[in-house]
Amino acid sequence: MKNHILQIEKKLRTTKKLLLQDSILQNDIDFSHDFILPYSKADKTSNIKLIFIGQDPTVRREESREEINVTLNLDKGNSLRTYLEKVCETLGMDLEKSRLSKAGRNDLANKIERVSLTSDSYGYDIISFDDDGTKRYIEVKATRSNVGVANFFFTANELRAAQETKNYYNYMVYEVTTDEPKVWAIKNPFNPENENAIKTPINYRITINSESTTN
């Protein structure tokens, strides 16, 4: 095991050197702390699951950073949000299977699909069923907030799917980081249009043809 730790330490030094040479990454990674090595008394290498790199970017005060022992930086590409959403999708699958099983429709419970695993193009995460066999299209959203007003972001594709699909649901998962998250199944607020569902544009895609612009 000791030799394995030494090999990891050597590779980490090489990795750090490469990161420092990257003109972009060198400005966004805190190298003031050494890489944290795996627990050296682990019985076997399979016990090593993660190597933690860097410091929590949300900690702005330098003195506070010294109090951090181990951090996992999942902010790249909104990966923390993505991770939580995947967890919530799994929760949605479990809830749907339980609902249909309680309704005596194990045949339908076995047909539920988590389509988000194959493509993001659908505009929803899960295809489930109502008790009568009608397909139910489910988009799962998550928040750390307590149960209350549903406040979430929709992509243009998700909004299109909601507007074009009648049996579309939003499953809003509250208190997502707790041991007991709560789920609110929201019937499609966009087909028919619900006046209580307020859409606020946040981002715009701007396309400009350089040949058509003038000084």
What does this 3D model show about the protein?
Mean pLDDT is 75; it is low at 39-58 and 68-76. This protein has a four-stranded mixed β-sheet, sandwiched between helices. It is extended. The protein is of the alpha+beta class and 215 residues long. It folds into two domains: 2-73, no CATH class; 78-187, no CATH class. The chain is 28% helix and 12% strand. A hairpin with a 7-residue loop joins β3 (168-174) and β4.
Mean pLDDT: 75
Please tally the helical runs, counting DSSP H or I stretches of 4 or more residues.
5
Strand neighbour order, sheet with most strands:
1-2-3-4
Amount of beta strand: 5-15%
How many separate domains? Answer: 2
By helix and strand content, what is the structural category? Answer: alpha+beta
Question: Helix amount, in percent?
Answer: 25-40%
First-to-last CA distance: 66 Å
List the secondary-structure elements in sequence, H or E. HHHHEEHEE
Quick one: overall form? Answer: extended
Low-confidence stretches: 39-58, 68-76
Estimated radius of gyration: 23 Å
Quick synopsis:
The protein has helices at residues 2-21, 62-65, 79-102, 106-109, 156-164; strands at residues 126-129, 135-142, 168-174, 182-187.
SSE topology sketch:
Blueprint (H helix, E strand, L loop, with lengths): L1 H20 L40 H4 L13 H24 L3 H4 L16 E4 L5 E8 L13 H9 L3 E7 L7 E6 L28
Parallel strand pairs: 2-3
Antiparallel strand pairs: 1-2, 3-4
